[in-house]
What does this fold into?
Amino acid sequence: MKIPWIGSKKKMLPQLLNYIPTNYNNYYKPFLGSGALFQSLTPSTVTLNDNDINLIQLWKDMLAKPELFCDYVRKFEDKIYVNKDQKTQKKSFKHLVEKFNKSNLGAYKSALFYVLLKYAFRGIFRYRSDGTIYLGYSFSSRFKNPIIVLSEIQRIKTNVKNIKLLNGDFESVINQTQSNDFIFVDPPYWREGTKDNGKLHENGTI
It folds into this structure.
């Protein structure tokens, strides 16, 4: 299942999988991002962390209520595709952004977040100082392809028996690891003063 995110390791999986240990107890990911490696491995016991609360909430709602989540995604996607020309689609996209910024946490808001990530310009979004997001629309396709598949979420739920989703400091996650655990650390690139997704905030260091 593809979650658009800057710095995704999906294209690097063939190389990364060559370095994964054969046997380990628990899987730890201090910087979740797209979760591409986690999805390819689907270990039984997992701890996933990210600084972005909306990303963590997306995973929580998606795994807790996959059918409802997928229904919302299709509904919001249809609101874009009901319009044939890109100019009108862009207006629909902006309307979804407004809905997201006014919504409370839950499957509704998480599904909005997923759709916005999919259709954002180069997958980039930014947070304002008040916590709302702003992003540009760039999707222009003649054909509609489903962006979410229920069976992929159900596969993760079936294979991963114990999953912990955290929105905290990466160091606290690293400190939880024990002997024979596997921890995949791929920190965001550092850039002073940034508030982009996939990047550290101005006071963050690694």
